[in-house]
Amino acid sequence: MKKSNWKLRIEKGFEQLGFAMGRHPLAWLVGSLLIIAAMASQLGNLRQDTSLESFLPKGADIIQSYMEFKETFGRDETFAITVESENPYTQEFATQLHALHQQLMDEVPYIANVDSLANARHTHGADDTLYVDELLPEILPEDPEEVEKLRNYALASENYRNFLISEDGQLVALIVRLNSFHYEKDASGELHRRYLEESDMKVSYDRIRAIIEQYQGVMSDDIQLTGGMPISLELAELTSRDFVVLAGLANLVIGIVLFVIFKRLSGVVMPLLIMAFGITVTMSMMAILDSPIQISTSILPAFLLAVCVGDSIHMLTIFYRHYDEGDEKLHALASAMGHTGLAMLFTSITTAAGLLSFSTSELTPVASLGIYGAIGSLVAFLLSVTILPCLIALLPLKRRKLHQEEHKMMHRFLSWCGTFSARNAKPIVIVGVLLLVSSAFFASQIRFSHYPLSWLPPDNPFTIAIKEYEQRMGSTVSIEVVLDTGVDRGILNPGFLRAVDRIQQDVVHWDTEHYQIAKAMSVTNIVKETNRALHDNEEAHYSIPDDPNLISQELFLVEMDEPDDLYNVVDKDYRIARLTITSTWFDGLYMQGLLDKLDVRIKDEMAPYNVSITYTGLAPIMGVTFAKMLFSTAESYGLAAISISLMMVLLIGNVKLGLLSMIPSLLPILTVLAAMQILGIPLDMLTMLIGSIAIGLTVDDNIHFMHGFRKLYLKTGDPIFAVEKTLLSTGRAMLITSIVLSLGFLVYIQAEMTIMAGFGVITAVCIVLALLASYLIAPALMIVANKTWHHQGEKKGRINPRSDEKEEREVVE
Description:
The protein has 813 residues and is α+β, with helices and mostly antiparallel strands. The chain is built from 26 helices and twelve strands. The strands form four sheets. Strands 2-5-1-8 form a four-stranded antiparallel sheet, sandwiched between helices. A four-stranded antiparallel sheet has the order 10-11-9-12, with helices on both faces. The longest helix is centred in the first third of the chain and has 35 residues, at 228-262. The two termini are 15 Å apart.
């Protein structure tokens, strides 16, 4: 039997490329490094963007609605400073609260406003006059009864209870909001407006922390900074820190393991250099194409670690083996290139094709991961067949005699795998297929999740702070509903306002096992509060008046005294009303269900008033967006499986065998998903993206085995012989790669974030399972699916561990 001519030509081409580079390594290396240096010069333009706007394409309707909301009402996400006090209504506390409030306003960059008891409204009436005073004035009344009235007003107010003061009256909050935009002058002196970026918010965050530190132990012994904004910033910082620190530690571990295995420094330096160049080139491409680093693309270094080191190990394993056996360096290099080049090409193209399936996603982070993951895979291949051969040719490499005992141990293990697969081929295939089917069943039941608080350990200070805040205040997440009446002064309609009020009174009772609604606030709170004050503070008049003219007058009075409070809930034309619904932080996968329920309720109440309804705000958009991201990514994996199947068929040259070869490729991923389902571990944003790395690893092992097997089978006609010889040659590199990468990813167990620790463990398990599938299931499948045309040797290819190494190598090549 003969191998396809095109494959032979490609292998010969790689071998000739090895000779060419080996004869002129310096010229090839300098040329390659100049190209890398030119690309790396653009790294200064690489930016990071984890903002909401970066998750969806520019011009998306949902983003445009959010921008319009911020234009009208400002930013919805906040910092919450909580201060514990037995009695906030003391002169000492009032003085310090006003000082803290003012210092925040004066010193925090990009600040828009601060809400606290220091500027909260005490709306009351006397002698047909409306008074709007501070709820906690800087100078308290001398009469203790007047002070108690203020305290009781705060605790009874729908506006401030569980917002600025807890129900027990001992926890006070200051809510800090930043501007949505910042105005800057360009070189010509013209003002330009830009949206605040994460780096801007981080500057504000650091300043807030510095300010509250000054009051710790003075104003109170327990001052905490929490809320949605600091949690988001901390998650972004911890994610970045874990990836950077642990990626460095993983490199160290991988370097140590490579040295232990290869027992030479060159075996450490060359793979790590290729990986460093791979990351540099891929990140440079992002800078050149103006694609920012996002949450998804932050795993690219880990992905490139896998593919770059994997390719390098495969080539070095074959090269060192030939070189240590006495071949000249040039011939050993050319032989290694010819042996591994085609397989590496197919692993890179297949991995790239699989990842490109993600590029069709509507979500920018998923699409970016697909595009730059594919680029990184191809870059890893190009570096492995250009720079790595040059380094091999230039570095002074010493031959190392393989210790007989070391050789026997690996030889016996690989021989046992081949013999075991040959003798038990059918049972192994049956078990493999059953495991695949059962894993697919359990994997199809896996639960998705997007709950960022679970990414932090339970004892993390930020987790504790936000849980305590929610327990005392009730909410950290807000859903913004924009009600556009379509006409100026349309919100002055009493019927419309009563409908909004009914919605508010209803939704606060929508507590489920997944979320608890804490508050619902709108302009109705101001109208009812003002109406009561103008009727001698009688509670019976805490309601919406029947007369729209009276409503207009009441809002005009508030506008004269506290315009900021009013324009926080309505626009200046009184056409648009803002309804804010707050809840505990809950799994974003349930956000769409809540919005659907809310939509039915609001449309029912708004039906008579021809109101346009928009749902926006950071929390609902992120919840719905990440839910789409998870399901979109799942669909992309389906497309990736199809793409990889087609590539496997092309590599093997047989439709049936190509499809069968997908079993060992898919089984590791499906097995891990099934185990996660059984253990109750949901698929979240990061573990979902692990599949992109898993695809590269499982396909890498499988293609290298299949390539080696088909090469020998077409030459000898004996599948058992081909399996055993492939494991003794290519199997060595597969084993080394798996050991190195699994130990490297297990380093992530040390991550501060639980999601990162899970990332490391799951990836390491995928690597080990991929190796087992390539050692046992793939060989068994090939033995069952391929006929024996010719028996090699008396034992039909079963290798004696003591067989001569050179004889074995002759057959393999």
